[in-house]
């Protein structure tokens, strides 16, 4: 019996199996005939990290300027309410028109911050508390002689200042009133009808206090207390002795020189009612009318020649006056006058030279608000570090969870998948899609990641075979990630070999 053909076939089959790792680049870490059978089955437990960043060019997750809550965000402020524009204020004035009767008026604070008070007119009240407004009105009534002992009472009926706003994935977005100084995030969950179950993080946009990070005067404050850039404030000249300003003669006649100081013998005793005269020598010099400039004598201008038509000279390439009519015999006409080319007018400002602008001295203006990042899971779990106090003007932004990722290529169920408010790793994403397709080659995969804030994307090569073999770290997917699982030229042959073995199952 000749065994040589059978032996040669067996050797050829063994050689093929021996060359498979070389052809595949030694990428079959888990399965030999089936590269889609991935996994790592150690005898003892092992631990590896999960990466959140794949390349150094990736920005951090969340908003760029978001910060964690600070200790000051957990402390309530117990201070009096200060009136702002649009508030409705009730004023109670006893004995104003008739003794024993009480005058009561209800006024609204204008956009300029004023209210109209009986017999006093317009009074600025924005930024003042109720006791401060009462003290101001009592002082004005007393100074005007309208009430000898005024007892004005002020009550803010409609308070528009202490409010906060909620928007996004909540049951009832809108504007709400801050009823107590110690109102916190967990206190308003029932008011806004809960936060979405898939929300993992939300943000509190908070205005900075006055004087911190502001670039303009706060509403209700005089301009002197706001921001004033350096270089725009004119300081008055220093006051020196020697000159006096006559305010009585300033109207209509200008400033008058000061009189000679009287001697000690002839100086009368100063009466207590006489106001002191302010000496300001430099101010008088600045406010003095300027001297009339000398008359300008116009220089005689040369008499222009009469207009003559111009023609183009092809020999010189310039415009010349047209030749005059031929002169009578015996007379010589004037020579032709060459007209110089007209130069382009120079700009009224000097051209900018490179390197003249000092970019280093540009003032840096700080932000007027701060974005606080709140971990929703930690907040609802009872972490007190995230249960911050709600301030006036806070905007609570709860993003709508619309993050998705895409699976394509050699996977069992390609398509688009939602994160569902969770952090999804690449292993979990493939498991949710049913694993790999028959022709998948796990060592050839890529993640296409979009760079936020730009029209660029980066393609990152990923070895899923090494990740499932616990040789490389797993990583979290991001919004709009595209996971593409590739194949290999050897994959169809391995698929045929696997199916041929399956065909012989059960036949001994």
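Q: What amino acid sequence fits the structure above?
A:
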């Amino acid at each position: 019996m000749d065994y040589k053909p059978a032996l040669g076939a067996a050797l050829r089959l063994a050689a093929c199996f021996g060359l498979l790792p070389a052809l595949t680049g030694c990428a079959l870490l888990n399965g030999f005939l089936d590269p889609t059978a991935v996994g790592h089955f150690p005898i003892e437990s092992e631990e590896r990290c999960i990466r959140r960043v794949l390349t150094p060019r990736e920005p951090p997750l969340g908003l760029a300027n978001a910060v964690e809550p600070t200790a000051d965000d957990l402390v309530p402020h117990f201070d009096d309410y200060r009136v702002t524009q649009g508030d409705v204020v009730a004023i109670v004035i006893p004995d104003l028109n008739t003794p024993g009767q009480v005058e009561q008026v209800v006024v609204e604070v204008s956009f300029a911050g004023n209210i109209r008070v009986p017999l006093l007119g317009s009074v600025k009240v924005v930024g003042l508390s109720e006791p401060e407004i009462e003290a101001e009105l009592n002082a004005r009534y007393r100074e005007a002689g309208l009430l000898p002992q005024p007892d004005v009472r002020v009550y803010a009926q409609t308070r528009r200042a202490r409010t906060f706003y909620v928007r996004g994935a909540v049951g009832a977005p809108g504007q709400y009133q801050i009823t107590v100084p110690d109102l916190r995030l967990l206190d308003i969950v029932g008011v806004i009808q809960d936060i979405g179950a898939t929300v993992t993080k939300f943000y509190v946009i908070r205005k900075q206090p006055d004087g911190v990070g502001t670039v303009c005067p706060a509403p209700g404050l005089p301009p002197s207390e706001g921001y004033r850039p350096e270089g725009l404030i004119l300081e008055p000249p220093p006051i020196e002795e020697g000159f006096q300003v006559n305010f009585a003669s300033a109207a209509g006649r200008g400033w008058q020189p000061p009189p000679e100081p009287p001697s000690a013998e002839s100086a009368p005793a100063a009466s207590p009612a006489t106001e002191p005269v302010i000496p300001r020598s430099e101010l008088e010099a600045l406010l003095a009318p300027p001297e009339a400039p000398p008359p300008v004598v116009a220089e005689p201008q040369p008499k222009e020649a009469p207009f003559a038509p111009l023609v183009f000279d092809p020999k010189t390439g310039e415009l010349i006056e047209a030749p005059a009519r031929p002169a009578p015999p015996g007379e010589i006409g004037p020579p032709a006058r060459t007209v110089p080319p007209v130069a382009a007018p120079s700009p009224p400002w000097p051209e900018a030279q490179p390197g003249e602008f000092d970019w280093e001295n540009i003032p840096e203006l700080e932000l007027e608000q701060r974005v606080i990042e709140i971990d929703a899971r930690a907040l609802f779990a009872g972490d007190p570090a995230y249960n911050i106090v709600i301030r006036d003007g806070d905007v609570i932004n709860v993003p709508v969870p619309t993050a998705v990722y895409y699976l394509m290529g050699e996977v069992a169920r390609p398509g688009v998948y939602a994160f569902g408010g969770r952090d999804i790793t690449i292993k979990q994403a493939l498991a949710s899609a049913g694993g790999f397709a028959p022709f998948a080659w796990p060592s050839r995969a890529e993640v296409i990641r979009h760079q936020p804030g730009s029209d660029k994307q980066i393609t990152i090569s990923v070895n899923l075979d090494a990740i499932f073999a616990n040789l490389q770290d797993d990583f979290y997917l991001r919004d709009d990630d595209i996971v593409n699982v590739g194949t290999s030229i050897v994959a169809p042959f391995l698929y045929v070999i696997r199916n041929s073995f399956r065909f012989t199952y059960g036949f001994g």
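Q: And what stands out in the fold?
A: Residues 95 and 173 are 47 Å apart (CA to CA).
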